[in-house]
């Protein structure tokens, strides 16, 4: 005779654990599925555009893969472009946890690079580790002060941070051009005004065995530190509460103003560090190349990553590969150099539209899977 056990506490616990795991998976599957669908939809729209130009979408995406990920040379190029995108993405993602949309990272990158170049020139006779550390601090201070000022305007004067950030980015780039072409210009830079070149000893070298500079490791480390700040500290918890409802956070006595200014300053410091790395590892001096669009691409990185610092890492690699393939696509398909920007713009539009889809699919509702068996 078979005995049926219908009320075994151990089995009830197993069913509850399994239900909890399914609910955990459902909660985290929603952003992955929607972001992946957004990428596919954006690429589909771009394919229609290629067809109207009598170009092959299959050839485009084959070249995209080959130029960004298809060989060791391509991978190294992709990783080199990933490094600034990591820090540019953090510049958007950190304030976003407080409900702020700041798109002025391009200006902070430019000022951070100029500050780092000026510091490196002033300390050229000092030991190399001290010069590099001072350059990093100068770049972070310049970027942090610039974006921190946007946060202060938002809190103390109720100025919309998106508008002020965009306008201040133009001011920062104009200020960079003035300094590079005027007070800080190296007289030997003729066709392309630049600051004095950094000595080789004061530049950031490549990771051993690769052509990828150490800025990649710095960017990844910053993403992990940002994740720890947001998920494991009381300030991060307060920021998440404030991002959910600023008014409720004020009623609970949370220091909303300090949080806004501090997180904006940290975001600007990340962008300023990006500018410093571009100067010390790529260009060797501050010039107009600092305004290369990384700050704007960082907006797409942060949105695709859902403002998650750890998710920024794979997303930045993906967009870094897309950027690395741009030259190959331009040569082989005879497309303009702005083609990659059009692709990114289409994906960004779809991602923004997809924000309306969250919470609409019952299959991703944790309560659906958390029922006790």
Model description:
The chain is mainly alpha-helical and 373 residues long. It has a domain of 217 residues. Helix content is 71%, strand content 0%. α3 packs antiparallel against α10, α3 packs across α12 and α11 packs across α12. The longest helix is centred in the N-terminal third of the chain and has 44 residues. The N terminus is likely disordered.
Key attributes of the depicted protein:
0% strand, single chain, 373 residues, mainly alpha, disordered N terminus, 71% helix, 15 helices
Q: From N to C, what is the helix and strand string?
A: HHHHHHHHHHHHHHH
Unreliable runs, pLDDT <50, ≥5 residues?
A: 1-6
Radius of gyration of CA atoms, rounded to a whole number: 23 Å
> What distance lies between the first and last C-alpha atoms, to the nearest angstrom?
25 Å
Indicate the mean pLDDT: 88
The largest sheet is: none
Given the helix and strand composition, which structural class is it? mainly alpha
Give the DSSP E fraction (strand runs of 2 or more residues): under 5%
The number of helical elements comes to: 15
Proportion of residues in helical segments: over 70%
What would you call the shape?
A: globular
Could you tell me the number of beta strands?
A: 0
């Amino acid at each position: 005779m078979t005995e049926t056990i219908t009320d075994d506490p151990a089995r009830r616990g197993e069913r509850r654990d399994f239900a909890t795991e399914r609910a955990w998976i459902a909660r985290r599957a929603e952003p992955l599925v929607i972001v992946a669908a957004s990428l596919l939809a954006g690429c589909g729209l771009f394919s229609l555009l290629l067809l109207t130009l009598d170009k092959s979408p299959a050839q485009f995406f084959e070249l995209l893969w080959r130029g960004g990920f298809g060989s060791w040379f391509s991978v190294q190029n992709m990783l080199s472009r990933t490094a600034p995108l990591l820090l540019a993405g953090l510049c958007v993602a950190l304030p976003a946890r407080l409900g702020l949309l700041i798109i002025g990272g391009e200006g902070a990158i430019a000022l951070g690079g100029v500050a780092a170049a000026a510091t490196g020139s002033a300390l050229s006779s000092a030991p190399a580790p001290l010069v590099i550390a001072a350059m990093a601090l100068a770049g972070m201070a310049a970027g942090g002060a610039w974006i921190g000022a946007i946060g202060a305007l938002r809190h103390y004067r109720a100025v919309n941070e998106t508008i002020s950030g965009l306008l201040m980015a133009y001011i920062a780039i104009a200020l960079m051009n003035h300094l590079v072409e005027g007070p800080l210009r190296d007289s030997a830079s003729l066709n392309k005004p630049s600051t004095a070149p950094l000595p080789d000893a004061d530049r950031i070298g490549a990771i051993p065995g690769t052509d990828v500079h150490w800025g990649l490791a710095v960017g990844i480390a910053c993403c992990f530190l940002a994740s720890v700040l947001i998920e494991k500290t009381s300030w991060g918890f307060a920021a998440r509460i404030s991002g959910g409802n600023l008014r409720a956070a004020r009623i609970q006595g949370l220091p909303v103003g300090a949080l806004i200014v501090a997180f904006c300053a940290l975001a600007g410091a990340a962008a300023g560090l990006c500018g410093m790395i571009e100067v010390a590892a790529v260009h060797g001096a501050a010039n107009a190349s600092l305004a290369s669009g990384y700050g704007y691409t960082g907006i797409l990185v942060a949105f695709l990553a859902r403002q998650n610092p750890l998710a920024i890492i794979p997303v930045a690699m993906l967009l870094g590969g897309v950027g690395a393939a741009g030259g190959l696509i331009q040569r082989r398909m005879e497309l303009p150099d702005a083609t990659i920007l059009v692709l990114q713009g289409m994906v960004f539009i779809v991602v923004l539209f997809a924000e309306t889809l969250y919470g609409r699919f019952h299959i991703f509702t944790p309560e659906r899977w958390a029922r006790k068996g």
